[in-house]
């Protein structure tokens, strides 16, 4: 069968399918939804009290939101935005990380010095792991062997063995560690320290994890105390690591091979967390004090758009293809 030429041309000209971008608004108690094709706000829905951490299941059918002041995780349908059920989380859930299989969910409980492990299918707590004071950052290695928690007051990265939920290693980092990000190949772990002003580089290739470097930041005209690393994202191709620098209103671009800072990209005010769109064409940042998100073109290393969202945006996740 031959298709009319006009239909063929229309198909070639049609844009790629867009993905939903979900942003938690910590003070607005909502999630704002954007379209990654038009970068317009298409919805906003209630998400409980003080929503912060957010993630989505690998198949895109479940959206998980840490409702910190409700002491639970709320689970939504990403298509309809209806709340489906809640998961037990322990007190004051802040950040979490989902196993790549979609189960379990590892949750940092800031007020109780615990990491809570929750079965996303049975909706039950599997384990509670005592960690340092004020746990926040959560990361999982690509081979799913290690879950890493960062404790803000203890200033440590705790390495939890996923086979028995026991801490096997502790590494001291700089003051107030916020985020833990593994490279795609699992050879490095980056841990940001907000007050210390550095990102610790941990080598994962040996028998034990080893701290091998600390990355500092300098921006002309910006006070050193404003350079506060928070969110970290590494590209899958091993080329770049991006670091949100909080009140410096910039994202640092790091060469992932040399761990040298290449550039700084200006964002909105108090840049906090970040997420890639599928294929890593864009990086979306949440900017808590300007109530917007910044869209960064990863190839050009340039901010291309700012979009107003809700009150004090905190976390962000993008639906998979």
Topology of this protein?
Layout: H1 5-13, E1 20-25, E2 30-35, E3 41-46, E4 51-56, E5 63-67, E6 72-76, E7 83-88, E8 93-98, E9 105-109, E10 114-119, E11 124-130, E12 135-140, E13 146-151, E14 156-161, E15 166-172, E16 177-182, E17 188-193, E18 198-203, E19 210-215, E20 232-234, E21 240-244, E22 250-255, E23 261-266, E24 271-276, E25 282-287, E26 292-297, E27 302-308, E28 313-318
Antiparallel strand pairs: 1-2, 1-28, 2-3, 4-5, 5-6, 6-7, 8-9, 9-10, 10-11, 12-13, 13-14, 14-15, 16-17, 17-18, 18-19, 20-21, 21-22, 22-23, 24-25, 25-26, 26-27
| Overall radius of gyration | 19 Å
Query: Which structural category do the helix and sheet elements fall into?
Result: mainly beta
Strand order in the largest sheet:
3-2-1-28
Number of discrete domains: 1
Classify the fold: give the CATH topology. Answer: Methylamine Dehydrogenase, Chain H
Write a concise synopsis of the structure shown.
The chain has one helix spanning 5-13; strands spanning 20-25, 30-35, 41-46, 51-56, 63-67, 72-76, 83-88, 93-98, 105-109, 114-119, 124-130, 135-140, 146-151, 156-161, 166-172, 177-182, 188-193, 198-203, 210-215, 232-234, 240-244, 250-255, 261-266, 271-276, 282-287, 292-297, 302-308, 313-318. With 321 residues, the chain is mainly β. It starts with a helix and ends with a strand.
């Amino acid at each position: 069968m031959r298709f009319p030429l006009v239909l063929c041309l229309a198909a070639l000209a049609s844009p790629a399918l867009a993905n939903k971008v979900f942003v938690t608004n910590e003070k607005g108690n909502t999630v704002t939804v954007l379209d990654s094709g038009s970068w317009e706000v298409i919805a906003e829905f209630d998400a409980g009290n003080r929503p912060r951490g957010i993630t989505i299941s690998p198949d895109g059918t479940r959206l998980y939101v840490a409702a910190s002041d409700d002491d639970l995780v709320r689970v939504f349908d990403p298509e309809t935005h209806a709340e489906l059920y809640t998961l037990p989380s322990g007190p004051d859930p802040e950040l979490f990380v989902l196993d790549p299989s979609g189960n379990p969910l590892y949750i940092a409980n800031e007020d109780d010095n615990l990491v809570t492990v929750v079965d996303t299918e049975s909706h039950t707590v599997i384990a509670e792991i005592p960690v340092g004071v004020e746990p926040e950052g959560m990361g999982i290695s690509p081979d799913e062997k290690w879950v890493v928690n960062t404790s803000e007051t203890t200033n440590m990265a705790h390495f939890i063995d996923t086979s028995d939920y026991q801490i096997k290693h502790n590494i001291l980092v700089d003051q107030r560690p916020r985020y833990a990000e593994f490279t795609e190949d699992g050879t490095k772990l980056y841990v940001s320290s907000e007050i210390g002003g550095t990102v610790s580089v941990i080598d994962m290739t040996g028998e034990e994890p080893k701290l091998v470097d600390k990355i500092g930041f300098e921006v002309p005209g910006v006070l050193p105390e404003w350079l506060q690393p928070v969110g970290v994202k590494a590209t899958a191709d091993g080329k770049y690591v991006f670091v949100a620098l909080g009140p410096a209103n910039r994202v640092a671009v790091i060469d992932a091979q040399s761990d040298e800072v290449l550039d700084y990209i200006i964002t909105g005010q108090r840049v906090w967390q970040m997420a890639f769109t599928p294929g890593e064409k864009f990086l979306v940042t949440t900017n808590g004090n300007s109530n917007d998100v910044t869209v960064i073109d990863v190839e050009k290393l340039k901010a291309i758009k700012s979009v107003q969202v809700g009150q004090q945006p905190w976390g962000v996740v993008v639906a998979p293809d």
